[in-house]
Amino acid sequence: MLEHFQGWLAEASQATLNIVLLGVILSLSIFADTLARRTRVPRISILMLIGVGIAVVHQVWLGAASGDILGGLSAPLTQLALVMVAFLLGSELTVDRLRDTGPLILITSLFVIIGGGLVVGGGLSLLGFPLVVAVALAAISVATDPAAVSETVRESGDTGLRAKVILGIVAIDDGWGIVVFGLSMAMLGWVISNDGQVALLHALWELGGAIVLGTMVGMPAAKLTGRLRPGEPTQVEAIALILLLTGLSTLLDVSALLASMVAGCMVANLSHHHTRSFREIEHIEWPFLVFFFVLSGASVDLYQIDDAIGLTCAYVILRLVGRVVGGYLAVICNRRRAQSLPRNIGLALTPQAGVALGMALLAAERFPAYRDSLLPVVVASTILFELVGPVFVRRVMRS
């Protein structure tokens, strides 16, 4: 039976198999939604576990090597999903919102980000892990899942300073994360390169070029958005923006995340009807995120998992410690403004999801020699943090 099935697969074209597999993934996502509602297990964790299950079938049952199960289609799908996430994230960075954020939220978020990143990066370096792994995971650790945190805070019913600070931090946290990740990748490329001058120029181009690209795409898009009526033209414009940002950032070899965030920020601040484009992207975003989370789980090399167990445990512990230390220092250094904030506020920022996974995939693509170290760690830790993160958030809200 298995031999006949493998023979049938061998005869089918890759394009046909891709279409079937995409349909299977979307069908399984419906099951994931139902299971999530009945068990309260996060959808993201279920989708990534489905991806791991696909990896088991692909690598163990069919005996195929780890890698792209869609034969080259996974990369553009995940890139599109990441660009959508970053573009929508940029929409949160409006001048009015940043003005309302206030110094307390800004300072607290900086303490958590810097403190957490230093603890993770320094801890992994002291434990003897390679520089690329330590720096990449330190940058990835900065990202937070705003949806999980926001939902748990709203469930608590708290509308005081504590809730406002936590919601304010998660609103800008991933923006900081994308900037930190871009700087870290550029720095690593410069440090490990044999030609420091060329690497430095490349790093400057990767970051500066992303800002220029985001501005050049975002400014005309902002003008165009204000002149369109709601409906099909707006949807076409939104899809065109995503495709242009994805393709041009790859073509120009600049940070797709940073370019998309800048473009989203431009549209949000310069257009009078900016919500139209963002709503259209939100309407089409979820199927791409389904592919993204499932393919992230399926990209793990199951035969290399044993080597990543120690690194995963170290990363999880150090990230928790870093969040707690960063939050504690933020409260201590802002006693006058943060009297009602709990000193363990950093625990409320532990969930991580799409942005962290996207960073891991980009880091693995940039440094393929460390792919089998980075991906299993981030996939496993994301599943864990999505499960236990809301518990920590509830604890902080009750303390």
From TrEMBL:
The annotated topology with respect to the bilayer is:
Multi-pass membrane protein
The primary site where this protein sits is membrane
Membrane-crossing ranges are 12-32, 44-63, 69-89, 101-120, 165-192, 238-263, 284-303, 309-333, 345-362, 374-393
Cellular localisation: Membrane
Q: Which GO terms describe its biological process?
A: proton transmembrane transport
Alphabetized UniProt keyword annotations: Antiport, Ion transport, Membrane, Transmembrane, Transmembrane helix, Transport
Q: Has UniProt tagged this entry with the keyword Cell membrane?
A: no
The UniProt entry, under InterPro entries, shows:
Cation/H_exchanger_TM, Na+/solute_symporter_sf
Q: From the UniProt record, which GO molecular function terms apply?
A: antiporter activity
User: Domain Cation/H+ exchanger transmembrane, which positions?
Assistant: 29-393
- Which stretches are annotated as coiled coil? none
One Gene Ontology cellular component term attached to this UniProt record is: membrane
The molecule here is called Cation:proton antiporter
Tell me the organism's taxonomic lineage: Bacteria, Pseudomonadati, Pseudomonadota, Gammaproteobacteria, Alteromonadales
